[in-house]
Amino acid sequence: MSDTYNISDFDSSRVKFYCDENRCIDCHGCDVACKEAHHLPVGINRRRVVTLNDGIEGKEKSVSIACMHCSDAPCAKVCPVNCFYIRADGIVLHDKKTCIGCGYCLYACPFGAPQFPKSDVFGSRGAMDKCTFCAGGPEETHSAEEMKLYGQNRIAEGKVPVCAAMCSTKALLAGSGKEVSAIITYRSAAKGSGTPSIPYSWSKAYGG
Questions:
Q1: Domain map of the chain by residue range?
Q2: Which UniProt keywords apply (predicted)?
Q3: Average model confidence (pLDDT) across the chain
Q4: Distance between CA 193 and CA 200 in Å, rounded?
Q5: Could you tell me what percent of the chain has a pLDDT over 70?
Q6: Model pTM above 0.90
């Protein structure tokens, strides 16, 4: 795990997720794509769509939530066995073989990202599972073991996470802080431009 860093060394190049609630249409394409791509078991949801002000006309908005890969990750701080590690690009990952399923990370995470499978009828926890930004885990890249424990490693292939790739309205963005910020700035500046047949909302996504 030599691919770690000190938080103080990091800048805006770290990876980020951003969900534009003005574009999210609550289609659940992102969470379904995540479950399908990583073959997640029933009850494990690395990504979920939350609707705010549900049923209130004019105020209802939806947002897609997962692990935000925090620069000062509280999950890593409370883990008693230090199973978390942070890559040089800012992706927060963990080692399932080290995890003891204590649940401290779940209590510490403000986004409810850590997920725990129920191993029996009494609800005892198995090893924690969470969003990996589609970057796999500590096992050998693209190995059968990595796929089994963590799912696809799209980052190693130069691809964005599958949830962002499958977002039909490009509400969900994933990339470096600089890239995501540039897209948001462009969209803000372009708001209101375009024609009814080609709305501004389709004019920019990952440089397209």
A1: 15-206
A2: 4Fe-4S, Iron, Iron-sulfur, Metal-binding
A3: 85
A4: 6
A5: 83
A6: no
**Confidence at residue 32, expressed as pLDDT on a 0 to 100 scale:** 96
Nearest to 138 by CA among 192, 82, 75: 82
- Which residue type does 146 have? E
Q: For residue 83, what pLDDT is reported?
A: 96
**Maximum pairwise Cα distance, the chain:** 57
CATH number listed for the domain at residues 15-206:
3.30.70.20
Taking the C-alpha atoms of residue 28 and residue 47, their distance in angstroms, rounded to an integer, is 9
